[in-house]
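Tokens in:
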């Protein structure tokens, strides 16, 4: 179900070295790919990596549970986890060890792995509740679900660095949308492609592909795929909370509980689950040479008083303020008053310094004296309002001027408020409270706009998926009849303008109806899928294969002469014929009859080309089937 384009993935692979296991981990993975590998052979290779031995035994004990006897040997760990889980754990731990740094400056490699580790622990804990995945598999999938981001940072360090900066500044665009505009694949597609290549089961690949936008996933509610997708999204959000600054964690809790509700996990159970994750995090982090953060219990976070109105006073998130004042004593007095209210303070001694700090640090509020040497407060206000970042800053002017004309001038310059000198703590606190209220409203508006943009992006994505579904045959994954006709019209117009050849094939399966009638439609569908794969493997890269319906296919061959199309058709016929053999204990011959045609000068429209190809397919049937035929003796020159 994960809809990544293999051709685009191959192009990305060609851009450089993708993240892959090394050393002992590579030997372990190669060994697990052998059908006859024994636990003894695997144990010998694992023992060459002492660090992996410790991590493997730790993982086995987690799966085994605290009540069981402790696992102390590699052999016992292998018996508990199984070969496939050992392979996946080896892969994940190897990537952590070998990709701790890189040239992409804005991609925090240690933070990425810390986030991935918490996601792994959280996904494992959630699956203890949902039982949708084995615990050892859940840990590996959680650890690797963001590997596409790592791959982009490694393959395209300069480009991805610039893109991450844009994603931070251009909040009207999601990271996935920016990635798609710059690279061939976004990180969700690349993560899925890598996991698919590494042999991860498809049900987990699908969960990784859709979990970034889990509410838009196509899985039926309550299905295993649905649970895995939403559980992985919830695990990611738990990791977001754990690695967020302390001041931002509480604001993320409502979304946590909403996401838990999708999985029928109540708030109390979810708090306990999260505490289980944070308790396991430090030990795992130490083992993997990563950092962990001490955290209060999630129950404590949830029980803290919410931000809001309390006894008439606005209790809001602390702000960051910049004071621009050339008088040192006034500057320090303001600093003391504002810090006493719980806010963070930046200082500047003149307008020029204040402008530089404001642009670099982007404070919530600038308090500036009007009368200063050099750039005064009014000039600073005008300068800030001319910049993109400065337009959103709340600006308060300190002034001794109180006549109407001066105040009008201040507001016309872009000031939001003013405070008259001499400075009084109560007045300053009251004006800051008003500013806080406006900033809170501004942030609410920004969040609403971001939510609307996100909804629009999700709607656009859903529409694209619906369009793709409308143009795709569900059984074979090939484009359908509707797409075939549109594409043939396009290629016809291009061939007519350029004077190049355009050929097509009509392929009709021989004796397919008896298979359906005697063995059932399930077997018939399987045969059609095999025929489809054989056709796809035999045609050339520029050729376009579509399913017309039933057991009939079309191959559109741009810039192809009749002779070349006949050669290709014969190759297709041979590939399909090679499928013949025993099906459901019955020996069956599988073959196709293929009609080939090329665009001729007297053809007026695409349906004329289709008619000639269809006549060729009919002739092939009449001549005994399992053959290639054309009703055209030779291609004619085109204008």
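Residues out:
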């Amino acid at each position: 179900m994960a809809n990544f384009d293999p051709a685009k993935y191959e192009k990305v692979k060609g851009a450089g070295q993708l993240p892959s296991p090394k050393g002992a981990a590579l030997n372990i993975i190669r060994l697990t790919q052998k059908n006859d590998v024994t636990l003894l052979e695997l144990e010998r290779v694992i023992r060459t990596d002492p660090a992996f031995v410790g991590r493997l035994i730790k993982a086995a004990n987690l799966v085994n549970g605290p009540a069981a006897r402790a696992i102390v040997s590699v052999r016992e760990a292998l018996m508990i986890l199984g070969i496939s889980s050992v392979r996946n754990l080896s892969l994940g731990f190897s990537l952590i060890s070998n990709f701790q740094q890189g040239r992409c400056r804005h991609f925090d490699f240690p933070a990425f792995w810390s986030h991935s580790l918490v996601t792994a622990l959280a996904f494992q804990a959630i699956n203890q509740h949902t039982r949708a995945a084995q615990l050892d598999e859940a840990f590996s999938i959680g650890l690797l679900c963001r590997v596409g981001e790592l791959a982009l940072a490694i393959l395209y360090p300069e480009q991805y660095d610039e893109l991450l900066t844009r994603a931070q500044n251009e909040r009207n665009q999601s990271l996935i949308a920016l990635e798609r505009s710059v690279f061939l694949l976004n990180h969700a597609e690349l993560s899925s492609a890598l996991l698919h290549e590494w042999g991860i089961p498809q049900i987990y690949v699908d969960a990784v592909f859709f979990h970034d936008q889990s509410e838009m996933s196509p899985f039926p509610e309550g299905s295993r795929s649905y649970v895995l997708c939403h559980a992985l999204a919830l695990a990611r959000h738990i990791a977001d909370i754990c690695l967020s600054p302390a001041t931002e964690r509480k604001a993320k809790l409502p979304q946590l509980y909403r996401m838990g509700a999708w999985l029928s996990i109540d708030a109390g159970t979810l708090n306990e689950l999260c505490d289980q994750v944070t308790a396991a995090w430090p030990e795992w982090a130490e083992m993997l040479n990563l950092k962990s953060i001490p955290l209060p219990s999630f129950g404590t976070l949830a029980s803290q008083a919410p931000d809001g109105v309390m006894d008439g006073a606005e209790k809001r998130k602390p702000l960051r303020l910049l004071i621009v004042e050339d008088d040192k004593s006034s500057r320090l007095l303001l600093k003391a008053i504002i810090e006493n209210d719980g806010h963070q303070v930046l200082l500047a001694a003149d307008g020029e310094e204040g402008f530089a700090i404001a642009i670099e640090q982007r404070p919530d509020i600038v308090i500036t004296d009007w009368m200063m040497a050099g750039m005064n407060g009014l000039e600073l206000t005008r300068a800030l309002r001319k910049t993109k970042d400065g337009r959103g800053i709340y600006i308060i002017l300190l002034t001794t001027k109180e006549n109407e004309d001066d105040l009008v001038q201040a507001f016309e310059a872009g000031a939001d408020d003013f405070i008259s000198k001499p400075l009084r703590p109560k007045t300053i606190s009251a004006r800051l409270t008003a500013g806080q209220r406006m900033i809170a409203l501004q942030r609410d508006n920004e969040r609403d706009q971001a939510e609307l943009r996100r909804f629009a992006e999700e709607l656009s994505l859903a529409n694209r998926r619906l369009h793709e579904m409308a143009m795709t045959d569900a059984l074979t994954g090939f484009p359908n009849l509707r797409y075939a006709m549109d594409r043939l019209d396009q290629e016809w117009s291009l061939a007519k303008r350029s004077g190049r050849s355009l050929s097509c094939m009509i392929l009709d399966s021989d004796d397919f109806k008896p298979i359906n009638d005697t063995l059932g439609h399930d077997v018939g569908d399987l045969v059609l899928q095999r025929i489809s794969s054989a056709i796809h493997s035999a045609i050339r890269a520029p050729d376009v294969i579509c399913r017309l319906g039933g057991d009939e296919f079309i191959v559109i061959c741009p810039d192809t002469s009749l002779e070349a199309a006949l050669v290709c058709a014969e190759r297709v016929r041979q590939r399909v014929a090679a499928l013949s053999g025993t099906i459901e204990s019955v020996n069956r011959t599988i073959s196709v009859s293929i009609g080939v045609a090329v665009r001729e000068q007297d053809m007026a429209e695409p349906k004329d080309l289709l008619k000639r190809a269809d006549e060729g397919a009919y002739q092939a049937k009449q001549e005994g089937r399992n053959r290639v035929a054309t009703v055209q003796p030779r291609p004619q020159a085109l204008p």
